[in-house]
């Protein structure tokens, strides 16, 4: 299965929440492909962010791009239908946060969304063994979840290579996403390690010129 076309997904965690619609639209107009929507519950991770009502507001505001929901919540299942109804395109969750990973993946797909499984820096990829046929995306965390603006953990590159090998062996069109500390300086090495979907929060929203930053990322991806 050849690598899929690169996707740049700005994490709106780094946007200005008081101007979320405008900031999100500006990142998309500057060349971003998806919107990465970080949901934190102050339970699974030590931070609190936004939920389905905010996602619905973005849709109402006119955001039509795919919205890639990264759930950092525990439990997972009861909130899945709310995000689907609000307009999520893809929903990813952490295996540690679900009692029944296979069931949660099924729930996400039954709700009409694509499904992803997220691996923290120290979580082994073993959970993939029995669920590759239920996955649309594997998300490798390159920082510990909970906060934006952290530094990329270099050991993640090896994990991306391992995940890429598993995707190739499966013969399935599963995206490989990376999240945390991605910049125009390290994105080339990250792409070479096998990622095809790149989340970047601070690097894009803290840049003076979103379009220049996204163009520099695309150039480095090659
Ligand atoms: O899931 C996340 C944190 O848990 C964010 O998506 C991630 O940190 C992106 O922000 P940055 O690019 O600033 O690191
Ligand atoms: Fe995220």
TrEMBL record:
SUPFAM superfamilies: Ribulose-phoshate binding barrel. Pfam families: Ribul_P_3_epim. The gene is rpe. The lineage of its organism: Bacteria, Pseudomonadati, Pseudomonadota, Gammaproteobacteria, Lysobacterales. It comes from Rhodanobacter lindaniclasticus. A divalent metal cation binds at residues 36, 38, 70, 179. It comes from the Bacteria. Its EC number is 5.1.3.1. Its cofactor is Co(2+); Mn(2+); Zn(2+); Fe(2+). This is Ribulose-phosphate 3-epimerase.
